[in-house]
């Protein structure tokens, strides 16, 4: 097995490292990234001979296995995440080779995300953490990210501290109820949003949860994060440069109580010397190897979005004036970012012309005879990037059959909507 030592005088040739890789995963890892990591990026080379830094050029299965064993033997594993775990989701990091601050220092401006924020999906690492939590190995996650991908992945809210907030979450300042949205909140800096708490006994105006530079870290999140770091026998730092205070010092709390710190990051960090194990490389590749060694399957990500379909009507002699609305469950004015348009058609009534609704909020008004029922078919056309182009849902409408003034699609239809929206 080949290990590259930070203070060593000899480097194993890249071709030899690839030849000695004993499985496809590691071979692919070395071939794809071996030429990139001659030295850790961001800080001068380490010269502490007692401190090992395993570079991907020389990393072999033994190093991946070492991290896997640390995870498997841990009694209280805490994972500390940064922007580096979301770069494969299309969200730029800050200090990486194509990071926001890296490019700004080079005079190249702010990098563009590869897709809209609301369409980013959890990375392989996000989903691996879900499985580690499900098996009981992972006790808590502390995140500096605001992209909501941990919650979107299915990680339980009670197992997560979001130190810098969440771009998709609002909170009631009075009763502390949290509202997770499928759209990005309009403001940052703990400001008022256009919506109010849905609790009838409260009704306070909601606030966004994303911190601005002058804002202090939320006490509730900080307290739970510190508590778990103190209890941890292993804090695994993934995709973070560990340079933003005070958050960057939290993992070291475990060391004071006899715990260990492991770091997986593309660049060197100021905390590398205090870690028991450091791997400089892409987090997804390393975590894939760890999960393989643990014989754990990384679950697929299935996104679920919800829509609400309502049909209001009023009587007008022998006619019925009705209004169809397709809205978000988060409110009439909340966007449905995964829907491009909706075609409304009436297959059994050639006298009723179909229409395509292209603007949100999606709404259609018609007048029809009270004495004639019809079948309404909605074809929901999804935005680019969804796994399917469209899906349909339909139901019979009969205004003589004791239809209430507000008609909501039956429960089984709502279930169908959830299934088709999960194709995003």
Automatic annotation (TrEMBL):
Record's Pfam families? Answer: SIR2
Q: Which family does it belong to?
A: Belongs to the sirtuin family. Class IV subfamily.
Binding residues annotated for Zn(2+), in chain numbering: 172, 175, 197, 202
Keywords recorded for this protein, A-Z: Metal-binding, NAD, Nucleus, Transferase, Zinc
Q: Where in the cell is it found?
A: Nucleus
For this entry, list what GO says about its biological process: negative regulation of transcription by RNA polymerase II
Query: Which Gene Ontology cellular component terms are annotated?
Result: nucleus
List, from the UniProt record, the residues annotated as the active site of this protein.
Answer: 164 (proton acceptor)
Q: Which organism is it from?
A: Paspalum notatum var. saurae
Protein name per its UniProtKB record: NAD-dependent protein deacetylase SRT1
Under the heading CDD domains, the entry gives:
SIRT7
């Amino acid at each position: 097995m080949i290990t590259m030592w930070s203070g060593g005088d000899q480097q194993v040739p890249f071709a030899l490292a690839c030849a000695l890789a004993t499985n496809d995963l590691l071979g692919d890892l070395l071939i794809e990234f071996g030429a990139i990591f001659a030295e850790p990026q961001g800080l001068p080379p380490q010269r502490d001979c007692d401190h090992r830094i395993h570079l991907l050029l020389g990393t072999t299965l033994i190093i991946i296995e070492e991290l896997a064993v640390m995870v498997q033997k841990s009694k209280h594993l805490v994972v500390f995440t940064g922007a580096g775990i979301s770069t494969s989701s299309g969200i730029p990091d800050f200090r990486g080779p194509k990071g926001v601050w890296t490019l700004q220092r080079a005079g190249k401006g702010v990098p563009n995300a590869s897709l809209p924020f609301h369409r980013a999906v959890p990375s392989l690492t996000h989903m691996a953490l879900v499985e580690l939590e499900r098996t009981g190995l992972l006790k808590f996650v502390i995140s500096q990210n605001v992209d909501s991908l941990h919650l979107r992945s299915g990680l339980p809210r009670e197992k997560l501290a979001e130190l810098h907030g969440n771009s998709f979450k609002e909170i009631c300042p009075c009763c502390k109820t949290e509202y997770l949205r499928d759209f990005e909140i309009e403001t940052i800096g703990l400001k008022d949003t256009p919506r109010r708490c849905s609790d009838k006994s409260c009704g306070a105006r909601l606030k966004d949860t994303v911190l601005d530079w002058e804002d202090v870290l939320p006490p509730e999140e900080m307290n739970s994060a510190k508590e778990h770091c103190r209890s941890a026998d292993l804090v695994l730092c993934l995709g973070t440069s560990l340079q933003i205070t005070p958050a960057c010092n939290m993992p070291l709390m475990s060391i004071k109580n006899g715990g260990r710190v492991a770091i997986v990051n593309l660049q060197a960090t100021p905390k590398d010397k205090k870690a028991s194990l450091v791997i400089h490389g892409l987090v997804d590749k390393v975590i894939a190897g760890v999960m393989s060694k643990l014989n754990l399957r990384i679950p697929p990500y299935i996104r679920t979005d919800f829509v609400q379909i309502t049909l209001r009507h009023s009587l007008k002699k022998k006619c019925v004036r009705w209004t169809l609305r397709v809205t978000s469950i988060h409110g009439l004015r909340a966007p449905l970012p995964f829907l491009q348009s909706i075609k409304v058609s009436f297959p059994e009534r050639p006298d009723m012309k179909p229409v395509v609704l292209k603007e949100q909020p999606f709404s259609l008004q018609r007048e029809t005879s009270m004495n004639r029922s019809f079948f309404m078919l909605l074809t929901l056309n999804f935005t680019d990037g969804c796994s399917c182009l469209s899906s349909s849902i339909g139901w019979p409408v009969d205004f003589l059959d004791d239809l209430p003034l507000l008609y909501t699609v039956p429960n089984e239809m709502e279930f169908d909507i959830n299934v088709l929206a999960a194709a995003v």
